[in-house]
């Protein structure tokens, strides 16, 4: 099968299309013929190799989110799954950017007939991250929310979910006025620049900040929390926070703010599978939207990463083998 591997970490030029043996599902696994492969911000973070020695080996197949029919099952897996179209998380070690991928059956979810595989890979991880992130922040109706890094698929889902939950203010950060307008059409009420400045900043602090970015500007956003405000960090597309992050946090001591993280790794598998199924049903019903930046052939994976590196992407890039 054709697969996209990392020959050297850093620039997208280190990605290469190679031939690899077709994978064989082990006990408890399924083999999927990938119709669609999600290109996530996490893939770019891994490929850049910037996060303190990621521990990923050269030669790894990037990507972790695919959808397509099950074409083989390992021992102990119900053969009735054969032919069923499923969304799958292939694991933190990658394996996604390829014509075929294996996944543990518990990390797969049926895709409704009315939802394309392309749309499924744009929603299957991003919506649960946004949903459990907002739940971790204990968002309630009437509160104000800031989604930092809202132009990615997690941020877009968070904007739609926060608006649906009855947030009084759904502010976003983005580096692009055009992306800001698109976020408004999805439910954003205020569009701020990446540093939190903007022509329409709500005066009071935010009850909830859902942060996909991290990075050197994180400290200044502690100062944007309201009294009893909660910041939940779900991503690190901007890298680690600066050394003064703890100082900024304690500087807000008298506002009783909280800072936490949310990883899907701590969500119970059954709850996660249910959330994915609900995300797909919501998309079919038009309550959530799969926002696609581009759909590209598998061999254009490096170009997809170049687009992410220059910050042009709104929503999700999907590869189709
Ligand atoms: N918590 C979990 O369980 C979980 C699961 C999966 C993924 N993740 C994490 O989620 C992140 C990827 O999410 P995503 O795919 O939605 O994001 P993304 O598309 O990679 O980025 C979101 C937006 O952030 C902005 N941005 C990029 N670099 C920035 C920087 N240096 N400073 C400020 N803003 C920046 C860009 O928008 P503008 O240019 O418009 O500002 C970009 O569109 C990764 O860190 C990944 O590890 C977490």
Question: How does this structure look, described?
Answer:
It is a single chain. The chain is α/β, with parallel strands linked by helices and about 325 residues long. It contains nine helices and 16 strands. It has helices spanning about 40-50, 115-125, 125-135, 155-165, 175-185, 220, 245-250, 270-285, 300-310; strands at about 1-5, 15-20, 30-35, 35-40, 65-75, 85-90, 100-105, 110, 145-150, 170-175, 190, 205-210, 225-235, 260, 290-295, 315-320. Strands 3, 4, 5, 6, 7, 8, 15 and 16 form an eight-stranded mixed sheet that branches. β1 and β2 form a beta hairpin. α3 packs across α4 (about 155-165). It is globular. It starts with a strand and ends with a strand. NADP nicotinamide-adenine-dinucleotide phosphate (NAP) binds near residues 149, 153, 174, 212 and 262. NADP nicotinamide-adenine-dinucleotide phosphate (NAP) binds near residues 129 and 264.
